[in-house]
Amino acid sequence: MTHSPLVALALRKAYLALHRRTDRAFEPFGITADQFVLLTSLVREGDAITQNELARRISSDPSTIRAMLVLLEKQGLVRRESHPIDARSRSVRLTAKGIKLQRRMWDVSEPIRQSIHSALEHDESETLVRCLLRVERALESQQLSAVKQNLIPKHGVSP
Amino acid sequence: MTHSPLVALALRKAYLALHRRTDRAFEPFGITADQFVLLTSLVREGDAITQNELARRISSDPSTIRAMLVLLEKQGLVRRESHPIDARSRSVRLTAKGIKLQRRMWDVSEPIRQSIHSALEHDESETLVRCLLRVERALESQQLSAVKQNLIPKHGVSP
DNA sequence: TATTGTTATACTCTATAACTATA
DNA sequence: TATAGTTATAGAGTATAACAATA
Is the CB of A18 less than 8 angstroms away from the CB of B8? Predict the structure, then answer.
């Protein structure tokens, strides 16, 4: 009846293919697909950004972001400065090296975007994006209410 | 011009939302979203299946599959028997407990499929699935040729 | 009191390379 | 020779909970 299980499976397959191919393409440069997403979100930001804001942008959480930033900082790609206004916050920004690498990775990943593009008809890209974002929002919004309403059992498997 | 980067980002966001919500829903039962995919692919198979075949089905690789199966075996959800024909192979199948848990998880994840379904119009599900599978194929097919043709550099970042 | 980020910690998934045993 | 799976090993990402500093 509902073909949503197919949607979930297709979504999974496409994402895994994307992720794997991106990882593979970036491997010679010592960077991962997820790290590229982080760097790119910093580029888009232009100026500095806090860690929590960063977490929100790339759908992650503070401790994960922190772990990722530490790795990127070791490579000299990002800097975490003290926040000018809020002393609790950290101002994250790309270094010159980070900017350069991000640009290079953008070029390196061009064939990947080409692959995606050539797999879709004229107007399908937009439809696809719209659907995916709607799905994302739907999946995120009901989550909290489900937890709050205790629709999810706490322990064990009931018989 | 090309909005493929948006496609990639939207794909990532939707998948992460799906994965996170599924993990969350299954957590009280001690199972992960990925493990559910594995179990479900065994259910669909009905009969036994080899580990390599399993890897192919859920877009994984042999050593990952092995690690996952070891965890599932510890929980008594799957069994790996010797293959009747090929002694190198292992015949993987669900145990009674595994079948039962998979069914339970299927029910538990019904609201998730509902969320996806309700986010999409009548015919959008099918379009979405078709597009995603085409994207997947495109991303997988060009990968080998890119490596073979040495389009990907081997070392370091060029200046 | 609420919020930002850190720390410690743990677990799953991913993946490569060298290996074995069978085919 | 080629294939199925194992082993050892490593690393990335994810996440929770307790905590410190600051708002």
Answer: yes
Name the pTM for this structure. 0.89
Per residue in A115-124, pLDDT (tens digit) is: 999 999 989 9
Among chain B residues, the shortest Cα distance to A120 is held by B131
Angle at which helices B124-148 and A4-26 pack, to 10 degrees?
A: 20
> What is the rounded CA–CA span in Å between residue B116 and residue A143?
12
pLDDT of residue B158: 34
For C8, nearest residue by CA–C1' is A63
Helix pair angle (A4-26, A96-108), 10° resolution = 120
Residue B2 to residue A113, Cβ atoms within 8 A = yes
Through-space distance between the first and last CA atoms of chain B, rounded to whole angstroms: 27
CB-to-strand D contacts below 7 angstroms: A 32-35, 60-64, 67-68, 71, 85-88; B 16, 20, 23-24, 50-53, 62-63, 66-67, 69, 80, 83, 86, 88-90
Provide the total of helices (H) and of strands (E) in chain A, helices listed first. 7, 2
Q: Is the pLDDT of residue B154 over 80?
A: no
Cα separation, B95 vs A38, whole angstroms? 42
Q: Is the pLDDT of residue B146 over 80?
A: no
Taking CB atoms and an 8 Å cut-off, how many pairs form between chains A and B? 215
Q: Dihedral sign, CA of A34, A40, A44, A45?
A: positive
A159 SS3 class? coil
Q: What tokens appear for B59 in the block?
A: 């877009």
- B4, B17, B127: residue with CB nearest A139: B17
With beta carbons less than 8 A apart as the criterion, state whether B131 and A9 touch. no
Q: Which nucleotides of D are covered by protein (CB under 7 A)?
A: 3-9, 12-17, 21-23
Helix (H/G/I), strand (E/B), else coil: A94: strand
CB count within 10 Å of CB A159 equals: 5
Maximum Cα interatomic distance, chain A, rounded to a whole number of Å: 59
